[in-house]
Every structure is written in C-alpha cells, then in structure tokens.
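Notebook B, p. 112. Complex prediction, attempt 2.
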Amino acid sequence: METNPAFNLNQAIQQWRESLNQSAVFRTENLDELGAHLRDSIEKLEQNGLTTEEAFFIARRRLGATPLLTEEFGKVNSRNIWLNRVLWMLIGVQALALVQSVSTIVTVATTTAFVQFGKSVQTSSWMPWLLGFQSACVRLLTFGFAFMLVWRFLVGKSKWKSAGCNAASQRPALMVGLCLTALVLTRVVSGGSTALMARTLNWEVFERFLPAISYGSIAANSAETLGMIVVTLLLARREILAKTTA
Amino acid sequence: MLTKELAAASTVPLVLSVLTEGENYGYALIQRVRELSGGKIEWTEGMLYPVLHWMEKEAMIESEWRAAETGRKRKYYRLRKEGRKALQEEKLRWLTVHETMAKLWKQTPHLT
C-alpha cells in the first residue's frame, strides 16, 4: 500500500474527537480515555505493518461507530445529558429576557418621543390611540426582530449556526457569561430609560395617553404570547414528526 | 463467536477476572481477553468503557490516570473488595450453568 504523505494522525484524532464531542454524553475524560485507546490500537497495528492511515481507520472501526458509542455512554452519563438540557433552557430563558429588554428599551424611547411631540397637538382626540397603536407596533416589531436574530444565532442554518451552537456546546461557560452580561447591560439601560422617562415626562399629558398605551401594551402582550405558542407548537410538531418517522 | 447477549452478560465477569491478575487499562484488558479466548471473544472495543465506568460507580473497581513509560497517559483500573465479592458470585453462576450443560452433554467439566 502506498502511503499518503498528507495524512496527519494528530489532526485525524482531533477531528474524530470533535465529531464525538457533538454529543453531550461524552465528558472530556471519556474522550481522553478513548483517544488513548485509539493511539494504543494504532501503534499495535503499525507494528503489524500497516501505514498510519490504515491503522487509524481500522482502530477507529474497532472502537465502534459513533451512534453506538453515543448510545452506550449515554446510559452511563445520563446526568451529562440533563445538565446540557438545563444549560440550554437557561440560555433560552436568558435569550428571551434579552429580547424583551431590547424591545422595552425601543418602545419606551419611541413612546417618550411621541408623548413629547404630542404636547403640541393636545387637541386631537385620536392622538392617544395613535400612540397606543404605535407603541404596540414598535414593541412587536422589535420583539420579532430581536427574536429572529437570537433564533438565527442559536439554531439558524447559515454560518451563524456554527457561531452559536459551537460556542454553546464547546464553551458553555463563555456562552452563559455572554448571555448574562448582555442581560445585565440591557436591564440597566432599560431601567435607566424608564427612569429618564419618569423624570422628563409631562405627566399631565401622559395621563391622557395612559389608557391607550395600556391597551396597546395588552395587545402587544397577547400577540407576543400567541407568537411564542405558535413557535412552540411548530417546534413540537417537528419533534413529533421526527419521532414518528424514525 | 459469542452472541450479542452472551457477550454482554460475560463482560463484567471477564473484566473482574482479568483484573485479579493485577491492575490494567482498557486496551490491554481487551487484548488479554482476545488472547485467552484465542480470538473467539471480540468486543466492539469502545463499548467496554461504559461498562468499566458503570462498574466503577458500583464500587467494584477503582481507576487512576497514570503516565506509562512512554509518557502517554492511561487510565488504570483496579479491583476493589466489592468487585472480588461480585466475582465470587459470578463464578458460582457461570459454573452452575457450565456444570449443568456438561452433565447433559455427558462431558466432564474441566473448570476449576
């Protein structure tokens, strides 16, 4: 057999490790142990006259196919799978809170601008309703937009996916840290903007707008909840279909 | 060749028995079983590790990472008291099966 000079054993083992690491069931120690086994096995096969590349493929085959290993390690490391799920839930909760903070900031800012502007057209009776409508629209639009961005980052199919998913699966601590920082930052900005509004707002004018803003807020809340229900159902449908076809 | 079920059932007693010879690491354990069985017992090698980890959880064995002479790190497994006890029970079971079959097949059992 001719040898392939381009074959790099360390690189091949690293790639094999990464393919196993896609699943949460393997702890780093498990991969170290399997890797040590692979190297022992390769060494032995090389002594029997195989090239490094041939030895690698045979040793990997003897070790077992990835789905089989994933299943068997999953039985022992079920705690790992649950920790991973909890991590994703936490990331989800934080991402949602982040989306809501962003949409609150934008809504408060535009509503304040509108109320200040509204001072000059106090006479018109449709003004409060326009304000309520716009605040609901702004909130829904920003919520939708921010949700799309976060969604694409976490589960999208473009290169965004590699950014979000890989970061989360390989560096969970970094991911959670980023989420928390973003969350705290937006909460501070959102709290600050509300306080700013409270201090600068002309309350007599705002009072007239309050009912319309509340209705707008109720409408936006309902639409948001409805949207989340639809997304959940769509995801559940995909899961159920995947289960029944598998 | 062993059937899937028999291979699964015999893994724990085989591992315990090999470890009575002294501590060992996964790859060498598999080699030892292959050698003793004349190549008739072939495991899917990676499947041994979840079994070893389960046995460790059950306190039958304990493990330790150590560097070999070559400098490469390996995880060594060693028998514990609980493991020796489990092996005694396994021995009784397997000998019972073996003796019964040997009598039915009119052969003298050779296992000690």
